[in-house]
Specification:
Order of helices and strands: EHEHEHEEHH
Radius of gyration: 15 Å
Largest sheet: 5 strands, parallel
Shape: globular
CATH topology: Rossmann fold
Number of domains: 1
Number of helices: 5
CATH superfamily: Response regulator
Low-confidence stretches: 136-140
Oligomer: single chain
CATH architecture: 3-Layer(aba) Sandwich
Mean pLDDT: 85
Structural class: alpha/beta
Strand order of the largest sheet: 2-1-3-4-5
CATH class: Alpha Beta
């Protein structure tokens, strides 16, 4: 079941955060929201750390905290999906490996497809276990 996968949504717009949260919960994921870079760090460093981060670069305190660099250093295995409108400053931004960039913020189906691809690539064993109902292969 997809519900085992935790997704953190960071966006400056509360309506976008809640829309994405509802859509991802409807897909069976656990979805949490963050309104700024400080909340992102708080959630990521908690016991409920996400499996995937969806990040709008216009979210407050992203650049002030050098969030992408911090995440790359402290959580190099965390997949990040940047969902933001194209901007000239992005051309100069060094993207860590494991970061996907989606330009169209209005295409929820593309976002869902990207999340699925990230899960299939990053968490194949967990995905398989989830599909099998979480049954372990240990013998009694």
């Amino acid at each position: 079941m997809k519900g085992k996968f935790r997704i953190l949504i960071a966006d400056r717009n509360p309506y976008v955060r809640q829309f994405l949260r509802r859509e991802l919960i409807a897909e069976g994921y656990q979805a949490t929201v963050a309104k700024d870079g400080r909340e992102v760090l708080s959630v990521i460093n908690s016991s409920e750390a996400p499996d995937i981060l969806i990040l709008d670069l216009d979210t407050p305190y992203i650049f002030e905290l050098s969030l992408l660099e911090l995440l790359h250093e402290d959580h190099p295995d965390l997949p990040i999906i940047i969902q933001s409108w194209p901007a000239p400053e992005l051309n100069h931004l060094k993207m860590p490996s494991g970061v996907a960039f989606l330009e169209n913020k209005e295409d929820i189906e593309l976002l869902k497809k990207t999340i699925k691809e990230v899960i299939e690539k990053k968490y194949p064993l967990r995905l398989l276990a989830a599909k099998l109902g979480g049954q372990s292969s240990s013998s009694a």
